[in-house]
């Protein structure tokens, strides 16, 4: 659950509208795998992850990154009930994928860097602050069903 | 988790490019940290924390000097940061989690201002460098 004022929700929407979700998802996942290489542990079936350029150019990384970011974007339509919105994905990440929730935090921070890179001056400290609340909320929601 | 020669070269190259503006970016990183992570403000209860505050600018300059010192002594970060390590351990006693928050905001700041330079390999080099600085800063905590 993330508590945003109307003004903050509006800032999230306007900031997010500037993001090309299709293009950026692959970069976010790719950077996660480059900057925190231990996260590669979940992607043994993805093929060549042997270098930064191999990772960033990997078609499976691009495709999966796009999928992840689309799911995140869908969550933005449910800011008042993130736990509900991500309940099934939370169970999946715990029971089937066995992903440490710390990884959701890492991905959220990489997303912040990628948004900064693409949005430049539009990614003001205020915009970052509301987006940090959202990624923290999504990470908590994804961890909520863990047992 | 040592920085390779290639990673060091990337960090030095960006520092050279920033020239005299390191203080501008560390100040922005502080402002972003205070905005995104309000708990960090507890260490600056006596400061004016409004964006543009002279006190934040002055503090940003101190952080810039320390980081530049670190970049110039990548072979011996514990040595170069020894005085700051003691200051943080015995006087300031800032909880270690806060250095990670500032480091993250510095990465966001650099990505925002140097999008073309902030490649994935630059991103990991900077993250490793800052992580080493933070380790050195907390090395005398206990």
From TrEMBL, chain A:
This is Hemoglobin subunit delta-like. One of its GO terms (biological process) is hydrogen peroxide catabolic process. It comes from Chrysochloris asiatica (Cape golden mole). Keywords: Heme, Iron, Metal-binding, Oxygen transport, Transport. Belongs to the globin family. One of its GO terms (molecular function) is heme binding. Residues 3-147 form the Globin domain. Gene3D superfamilies: Globins (1.10.490.10). PROSITE patterns: GLOBIN (PS01033). GO terms for cellular component: blood microparticle; haptoglobin-hemoglobin complex; hemoglobin complex. The gene is LOC102825995. Transmembrane segments: none annotated.
Automatic annotation (TrEMBL), chain B:
Keywords: Heme, Iron, Metal-binding, Oxygen transport, Transport. Residues 2-142 form the Globin domain. Pfam families: Globin. PROSITE patterns: GLOBIN. GO terms for molecular function: haptoglobin binding; heme binding; iron ion binding; organic acid binding; oxygen binding; oxygen carrier activity; peroxidase activity. GO terms for cellular component: blood microparticle; haptoglobin-hemoglobin complex; hemoglobin complex. Belongs to the globin family. This is Hemoglobin subunit theta-1.
